[in-house]
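Key result, reporting period 2: structure in, sequence out.
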């Protein structure tokens, strides 16, 4: 398998394992897939692959997907995620795990 194919497969696996209410950054997906620094490629995968939970992925600043903010905010709020002014308040698997344990 090529490096591109391996990255795509790993990133899709990470994305499919995201649970409701769990919000991560593009960079966190890339890092968890074993390819730190490949956050932009994660965006390309989300844009070209149907059926992935794209609304659970935001920029490193928590910004929602430009042009899709209203829909993404609606989907995230339905999962209990706080969204204000086009940004989520916190991201990352560790943040979500802490919320679940509290």
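The corresponding designed sequence is given below.
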């Amino acid at each position: 398998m090529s490096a591109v194919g391996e990255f795509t497969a790993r990133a899709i696996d990470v994305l499919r394992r995201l649970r409701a209410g769990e919000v991560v950054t593009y960079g966190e997906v890339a890092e968890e897939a074993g390819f730190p620094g490949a956050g932009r490629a994660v965006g390309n995968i989300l844009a070209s692959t149907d059926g992935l939970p794209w609304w659970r992925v935001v920029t490193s600043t928590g910004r929602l997907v430009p042009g899709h903010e209203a829909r993404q905010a609606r989907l995230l709020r339905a999962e209990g995620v706080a969204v204000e002014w086009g940004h989520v308040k916190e991201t990352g698997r560790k943040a979500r795990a802490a919320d679940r344990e509290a």
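The beta strands are 24-25, 57-58, 83-84, 87-88. The first strand starts at residue 24 and ends at 25. This case is discussed further under Risks and Mitigation.
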